[in-house]
Amino acid sequence: MSDTIAAVATASGIGSVAIVRLSGKKALSIAKGVTKRDSLTPRHAHLCNLYDTNDELIDEAIVIWFKAPHSFTTEDVVEFQCHGGSIVAERILKTVMERGARPAEPGEFTKRAFIGGRIDLTEAEAIAKLIEAKSEDAARILVRQMKGSLKNFVERMRDRLLRAIAFAEVTIDYAEEDLPEDLTVELALQLEEMEREISKLLESSERRRGLIEGFGVAIVGKPNVGKSSLLNEMLAYDRAIVSEIAGTTRDTIEEQIRIGTHLVRIVDTAGIRESADTIEKIGIERSIEAIERSDIVIAMFDASRPWDEEDEKIFELIRTYAPGKEIVVAINKTDLPQKLDCGKLEKFHPIFLPKTGKEEKIVRELEKRLTRMAGGDDLLLVSTRQVEAVRRAKEAIAEAKDPLERGELEIFSFYLGEAVTAIGSISKPVNFNEIMDKMFGEFCLGK
Ligand SMILES: Nc1nc2c(ncn2[C@@H]2O[C@H](COP(=O)(O)OP(=O)(O)OP(=O)(O)O)[C@@H](O)[C@H]2O)c(=O)[nH]1
Ligand SMILES: [Mg+2]
Predict the structure, then answer these.
(1) What is the pTM of this model?
(2) Mutate to test the pocket of ligand 1, among 229, 281, 311 (most ligand atoms within 8 A of CB)
(3) How far is CA 261 from the centre of its chain?
(4) Rounded to whole angstroms, how far apart are CA atoms 150 and 426?
């Protein structure tokens, strides 16, 4: 913490402005040296010439000093807003290093903001994910979490748990006193309500993981039904080879498209078929893998051929995955004479794809499903760390139920204490160093 750290905070490449950031005890004195100024006014934009250690002019830049503790890191921070491109910013960085700063680790500015008590971990993680977010919906949720919405949820939950513990403790200490009889019932109700809220958060975070990473859509179906044709139409160019030969696609093909405000990873797979051919077999395994990794499965069937064992296999697969995923059943080749009996598929409300204009129909359907998946409350668990902590809290709350019923209030308190620790760790880690390095190491440089 005593080191003064520096980094180029903006993305590399051509741009009109780049920002070099400096944080720590020496930030101001280094800035004075680089600008050759005797003084800077806090929070004022100064137009300055910047010089390297050989007194050579590097750039003319805007320099702002954020005086400790009123800065992002709570330390003295100086920002140099220089001309874009990589050379100028790199020269400034080199100069501040020669004057006593050291390069910042990824996420180190945010780490200092956390250590300085300016933000908690939920806010830090929201910042990291906001930078990565793949959709407007995610950005909207994350900016609120950056401003403390998840932190507030955690605090409210902690308060409720602590109050429940306090009730129990009072009962333990003053058992003979006149306590309301329905206390156990009241506590049980509270536990149930907390469990419900936590489960909802876990469920909606899992369902909406795609808001940050992008949603996965897998197209599956027996060979030759027209999977690659659909992919090509969606991408508006011939990405995959299409032919009348069954088994044309032998590997999974993955591309990204935007649907509405969402980023979608669309995966075309090898047709699922029992096969002795090793290459095709590997392809089939990959198809199953693609289904497992996806949020939405487009299961495609061929209207021009009778239902067969291969269709049956796809049907079994979608039945297996249906409860956890959005399944879109698409009937293709509807322009040819109909030989397919769709009876079994009725409950999936199949959509019929025309020979031309498949894309429009499927995108409309996907948009509907995405809207459904993306909906939910305003909170989102954005890392496995957060999910694990909430899951642990949920388990501990569940464990507390039995002892409560049996009137074993010490054990009840113990489990609720575990829940408090687990939920609290979302904001502030229990095992400080380990979490700190793991978490902030995933940040990008300069943040
Ligand atoms: N008549 C008709 N033919 C289609 C339609 N869609 C695709 N086809 C044809 O069906 C054949 C197979 O199409 P592909 O897109 O290669 O099928 P696939 O499902 O990717 O096949 P594999 O990669 O072998 O699993 C090609 O000859 C396409 O031109 C359609 O709506 N109507
Ligand atoms: Mg194909």
Answers:
(1) 0.75
(2) 229
(3) 15
(4) 9
Q: Going from the N-terminus, what domains does the chain have, and what CATH number goes with each?
A: 5-119 (3.30.1360.120), 125-207+381-427 (1.20.120.430), 211-374 (3.40.50.300)
Q: How confident is the model at residue 1 (pLDDT cuts 50, 70, 90)?
A: low
What is the three-state SS of the chain? CCCCEEEECCCCCCCCEEEEEEECCCHHHHHHHHHCCCCCCECCEEEEEEECCCCCEEEEEEEEEECCCCCCCCCCEEEEEEECCHHHHHHHHHHHHHCCCEECCCCHHHHHHHHCCCCCHHHHHHHHHHHHCCCHHHHHHHHHHHCCHHHHHHHHHHHHHHHHHHHHHHHHHCCCCCCCCCHHHHHHHHHHHHHHHHHHHHHHHHHCCHHHHCEEEEEEECCCCCHHHHHHHHHCCCCCCCCCCCCCCCCCEEEEEEECCEEEEEEECCCCCCCCCHHHHHHHHHHHHHHHHCCEEEEEEECCCCCCHHHHHHHHHHHHHCCCCEEEEEEECCCCCCCCCCHHHHHHCCEECCCCCHHHHHHHHHHHHHHHHHCCCCCCCCCHHHHHHHHHHHHHHHHHHHHHHCCCHHHHHHHHHHHHHHHHCCCCCCCHHHHHHHHHCCCCCCC
Enumerate the β-bridge partners of residue 264: 215, 257
Q: Is the CB of 227 under 6 A from ligand 1?
A: yes
Regarding the beta carbon of 228 and ligand 1, being less than 6 Å apart is answered yes
pLDDT digits (tens, 9 = 90+) for 347-360: 999 999 999 999 99
From CA 435, how far away is CA 107, in angstroms rounded? 13
Ligand 1 atom 4: residue of nearest CA: 333
Q: Is the CB of 446 under 6 A from ligand 1?
A: no
Q: For residue range 259-281, what is the model confidence (pLDDT) as tens digits?
A: 988 899 999 988 776 666 666 66
